[in-house]
Design goal:
The chain has 7 helices and 12 strands. By secondary structure, it is of the alpha+beta class.
């Protein structure tokens, strides 16, 4: 018999996370440490064994008028191979949404088109978009400064406009650690005309700017050149590429289109 529970001990969920995503035990345990006291965990249990899980990270969704909605970013949603196609994950989502009665919305980033269709069946709609550009590394006169998570947050909030997801410094620390592990980091990029913030990860000869605000090709090219990459792939505010989905809880009125940016993927 499948039962559902919240605030399941992270250590019990680590083997399922590893099975579904292929991450090392050390990486999963690092996530638990960095989100300790903030992450909410939900699981479907077959007896005492977790067979589906999700994490809920509290954040804020700013609407077009500047009003702040309480939201949770659903992360590491997965089901054990032995229990897929049995409705277990759908029931877990419904259970978690019911338990999240203090929040206005759930946000998530599907991994591929099939999952967009899956979540749509369960009341989620595509709401988060961005634009993507690729350009060669090139030297420009750009002042490059590495940032801590709290400083990055301050600069990020200054650059954003319209509706967007606001992350606190503890969540941005997740991106900082992933960026630095790849050989890059969080940056302030300053040209003669523009000041940008960028969250970058090195992927071989490519530099992935998981967000660059605002879009400045010279800044992206210069950062790629500085970090020894051949090209830069840039995500920035825009409406070209569907990226994430949302679902209103308790009748909340959510923006039609918004910017998520970082998904800690």
């Amino acid at each position: 018999m499948i039962t559902y529970a919240k605030q399941v001990q992270p250590a019990l969920l680590t083997p399922l996370w590893q099975c579904c995503f292929g991450d090392s035990k050390e990486d999963v345990e690092a996530f638990w440490r960095k989100t300790e006291g903030r992450v909410m965990t939900f699981a479907a249990l077959d007896g005492k064994m977790p067979v589906a899980m999700l994490c809920a990270l509290p954040t804020e969704l700013v609407d077009d008028c500047g009003e702040v909605l309480r939201a949770v970013y659903l992360y590491a949603v997965c089901t054990a191979p032995t229990h897929r196609r049995q409705g277990v994950c759908a029931a877990l989502l419904a259970y978690a949404e019911k338990e999240l009665h203090d929040y206005d919305a759930c946000l998530l980033v599907p991994d591929g088109e099939a999952l967009f269709r899956y979540y749509e069946k369960h009341g989620y709609r595509t709401a988060f978009y961005h634009s993507v550009f690729e350009l060669p590394a090139q030297r420009f006169d750009v002042k490059i400064t590495k940032l801590h998570a709290d400083t990055y947050r301050s600069l990020r909030e200054l650059q954003l406009y319209g509706s967007f997801v606001s992350y606190d410094a503890s969540l941005l620390e997740l991106q900082k650690c992933a960026s630095e592990a790849s050989g890059a980091g969080l940056y302030r990029l300053e040209t003669a005309d523009t000041v940008c913030c960028a969250a970058a990860e090195k992927c071989g000869a490519r530099l992935l700017l998981k967000e660059l605000l605002p879009y400045c090709p010279e800044a992206a090219a210069a950062l790629a050149e500085r970090l020894g990459c051949k090209t830069a792939v840039v995500r920035t505010q825009g409406e070209d590429v569907p990226f994430g989905m949302c679902k209103a809880l308790h009748g909340a009125d959510l923006p039609e289109r918004s910017y998520l940016g970082l998904a800690f993927d």
